[in-house]
Design a protein that fits this description.
Layout: H1 2-5, E1 21-24, E2 38-50, H2 53-87, E3 88-90, E4 97-100, E5 107-114, E6 120-122, H3 123-127, H4 132-140, H5 149-154, H6 161-196, H7 201-220, H8 226-237, H9 243-263, E7 276-279, E8 284-287, E9 290-293, E10 301-305, H10 308-320, E11 326-331, E12 334-346, E13 355-361, E14 365-371, E15 377-384, H11 386-403, H12 412-451, E16 455-460, H13 472-479, H14 483-496, E17 501-504, E18 522-523, E19 526-527, H15 530-536, E20 540-542, E21 549-551, H16 552-563
Parallel strand pairs: 1-12, 13-16, 16-17
Antiparallel strand pairs: 2-10, 2-12, 3-5, 4-5, 5-6, 7-11, 8-9, 9-10, 11-12, 13-14, 14-15, 18-19, 20-21
Amino acid sequence: MRLYSAICAVQCVPVTARKVAPVILAESQPYFNTGDILENVMKTVGIKLNLIIPQEQELKTLFEAFRTGINWSLNEIEKRYQVFVSRFEEIPKENRIDGVCPECNTEKNLTFLNRYTNRKYCSSCAMKTYSEYTVRKEIYGVGDRVVANDLKSVIEIPVKTHYAMLFSQAYAMWKSYNAWRIKRNRELGVVEAELSSYPDQRYLHAAMLIEQKAADTKRSNPKMIWKTAKAHATKEVFRDFSDKEQKEIRRLHDKLMDVRRLKRPISFPHLEECRTIMMASGFVQWDNGELYLTLWGKGRKRIDFWGKEYLKQYILKMEADNNVYCNITKKNGDYYLMYPLEIKVKQPPAIEECDPFVVLSSPTRIGVFGYDEDGALNSVKWMSTGQLAFSKRHFKEKRAEITVRKSPDEKMRKIRRRRKKIRRRGNVEQRYVSTYNHQISRKVVDYIMEQSENPKILLWDVGNGITQNFGKQLNYLKNLWPVVQQQDYLRHKAMQVSIPIVEIKYNKCNDLVCSSCGAKQKNGKKPAKAITQLIKGIKNFKCESCGYEVNQLINQANNIVSMQ
């Protein structure tokens, strides 16, 4: 089910209409005492549908109908918005006044000006002309679920409620597009105002001259790439300017590039393929552990699904409240029902009462160390991650083979093809590493829960320290170690089963210290660092003062426990 939770709906459900059913997660598992307080956590349960051929055909027809209807609705919404823009103009903030709105007869802040009547209106009265309810009423009609003949000529759906879900998806897509469009126009106005009022036109002319000379160079030498042509043009223009003036010209040149970028037309949303559809409340029902859906035709149909053993902990709670808005998502030819739930997990007891478990990792393995009340080590569990490091090294070598340029005169078409292969390899690597880290973090949490009923995890947060520069050789080894993702997934898995996590700051435990005598170790004249020893893969630690020898991760775990 890890894959299912990652499949998110593209078109979102309105927040006010999204109703969720409460769930107590995995009641059979002995998390904590029964008297603990419950807290709510949002979760989307992904259910893979096992469809027979007629049901799959119905769902395909419904997805195609949603695609056609959403595209048609987007165009209709845009038409009504353009009518609103032609009628009303937004007043700048400094010119707005308080007064009585002629539409609602209420004293409000007047933010819109009617171009035809020259009267000022409040935002709620002006914007309701293209609100979701108004546009839906004009396009689809109201009353006995009457749908406009214009849409019926485009697509005919037997279940009229699907039209409402279809419009909600279309309006959500259009709102996202319109917010992006307004933001771009606002940014363009700010940049153009700055350039038009710039005092020294000589610098502005020099910034514009860079683009002109780069275009002339590229025209005279077509084989030269644009980046090289611009470098030659910049060098030629900067001859007559000092370093301080060159910095200002570069800033103006970036502003000109922003103007060019913001003036490019943005593509209007259009679905080539619909991958998510919204199902109304009542169209998804649970009865005696069985799932029923209303698809293309009228009447509900029983739908089989995968993972029934895993979903036992959720099905009873889903049956308790069937009035939930859901999404059906299509991915790689399979269909998933995304069911939103409010999971109740138990709050952990006081941290002082929990049994400490230190989780540390190196590029080749992960160690889980359990301690008793006196701080003595009583359990050790090793989990190998050498396969992950080997796979990352293998992926890196394969990408390097593709990156090598065959000849200096290689055509740009072949270069683009190789870049596409590199991106594809990178996507495969990311999916593999993410799946591996999900599995290994789940094994860690399961082992900790087997050892103690009230555990806590002591985690050395290396997220800030791993980003620093360790030199060329160690940086290569560091990049093969996805420790930050491993720790993020471990936090997520621990949160699901209410295991508290105490994070130790990176700097507090980075000095290499002997856990027996407390002496700080040195690397020559400089103090040795624990993170460097882990990246190098040094297995054992030997104290320079007392001669105490132990595994590197165990020594670090002992130091972390002693800090608590």
